[in-house]
Amino acid sequence: MSVRELVVLGTASQVPTRHRNHNGYLLRWDGEGILFDPGEGTQRQMLRAGVAAHDLNRICVTHFHGDHSLGLAGVIQRINLDRVPHEITAHYPRSGQRFFDRLRYATAYRETVALTEAPVDTDGPVARTPGYTLEARRLSHPVQSYGYRLTEPDGRRMLPDRLAAHGITGPDIGRLQRDGVLDGVRLEDVSEPRRGQSFAFVMDTRLCEGVHALAEGCDLLVIESTFLDEDGQLAADHGHLTAGQAARVARDAGVHHLVLTHFSQRYSEPGAFERQARAAGFDGELTVAHDLLRVPLPKRR
């Protein structure tokens, strides 16, 4: 059975707190695992969340500030220690290659795993698989930063009543899906279009074109809301979003489920982020993230 869920490993910004680890987010997608922004302490959070190194297929880094990348060294070494049997691909801004190199080889260890480096330096697709396309979009932050979006190809939903009416059962359903026609019955006669699901990951950024492009029509949007609205000037000065700004992006983009995260340590009351997001007009599913939370992708629309 396929699993599509977000495992939240850490939700703090800049510095960890007693209750929030540095950033870290694992997307489980049909047997693959994509680790986003492994900050310091990610390896331990993986252990607490029941995530193994063998679960990882890709690592996506938005930018090279420490709270989003200092955990790379430990995660990469753990991948090699555990002798993960499959290739793992790392995506990160090309401008930060020197930081990636330092983190990859921060200390001595034995390399046993094929880790493919796939730096990002432009908007557009960075990986295509049968199950999804992964694309990157430039964000607006004091250092070069990219957000990521994973989109499943559109498909077709089989309609049991129409299949039954044509007497199509068992292996014949698979043949029809593969060939497009079976004994004069066309695939479109017994199915309907099914829009592919989408997931977007938006970290440190001001409002910009990339934010809106990543969020458009998204099923699950994970987005930073470092500041509350009353500190909007601080957000703009440091290249971040407020809870209200993030919620308005989600509202205007038609996001199904919004996950707010990356909270400044200055705030101790998470409920304020939810109240401001609702006040901004977002009326979809809303989660104010906390460490070790699991968020399933919404049911298909």
The number of E-state strands comes to 18
Q: Classify the secondary structure makeup into a structural class.
A: alpha/beta
Fraction of residues in helices?
25-40%
> How big is the Rg?
21 Å
Q: How many strands, what sense, and barrel or not for the largest sheet?
A: 7 strands, mixed
**What's the rounded overall pLDDT mean?**
96
N-to-C order of helices and strands? EEEHEHHEHEEEEEHHEEEEHEHHEHEE
Q: How many angstroms separate the termini?
A: 19 Å
**What multimeric state do the chains show?**
single chain
User: Approximately what portion of the residues adopt beta-strand conformation?
Assistant: 25-35%
Uncertain residue segments = none
Q: Judging from the principal axes of the Cα atoms, what is the shape?
A: globular
Strand order of the largest sheet: 6-5-4-3-2-1-18
Number of helices: 10
